[in-house]
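User: Modeling request: complex.
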Amino acid sequence: DAGVIQSPRHEVTEMGQEVTLRCKPISGHDYLFWYRQTMMRGLELLIYFNNNVPIDDSGMPEDRFSAKMPNASFSTLKIQPSEPRDSAVYFCASSFLRDTQYFGPGTRLTVL
Amino acid sequence: QQQVKQSPQSLIVQKGGISIINCAYENTAFDYFPWYQQFPGKGPALLIAIRPDVSEKKEGRFTISFNKSAKQFSLHIMDSQPGDSATYFCADHPQGGSEKLVFGKGTKLTVNP
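Assistant: Request completed. Predicted assembly structure:
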């Protein structure tokens, strides 16, 4: 298996632009998690899905953030409009039932 | 909000030494405590995990010790190697039965040759 796939790996954008991050979970996994990692706040859970349904979005920082999972093999995290404070590494992770979470390589987002 | 308090923030150890990282948790309805290892530019990866029905788990040079009464668990890395240099995170489920993981702030380990 190729593991969790994220794209793009790096994204540089200007403040106010829309940013879309993509994730392909491991085949057969029924949970998908979006995390944000910064030096100041560490690794934070933003939202997670079970069988494509959002279960807990309490970590989403504000309405500028949205996430979707239209099918079992694809999820997006969108930021609109982006701000410099959104600069971080965004990770997607997937798991089967409540077992180990497997993380993708991350997307490094820089908002100028 | 549920927290997992991890210490130290950074740790420098000589090759062959023992690295010890500690975590304190709040959740009482736990069932699983994982440790993740993250190398620069990579995503975190599960290193070792323990369930509360045992007090210790060992995998190679890595050992988790669990102290239920103190609500603490720790990671010991024996015979630390330069290749162990990474950031280590402990994690806990905030609620029994929840799929969420709350991570500690991380410990950056540097093993000098």
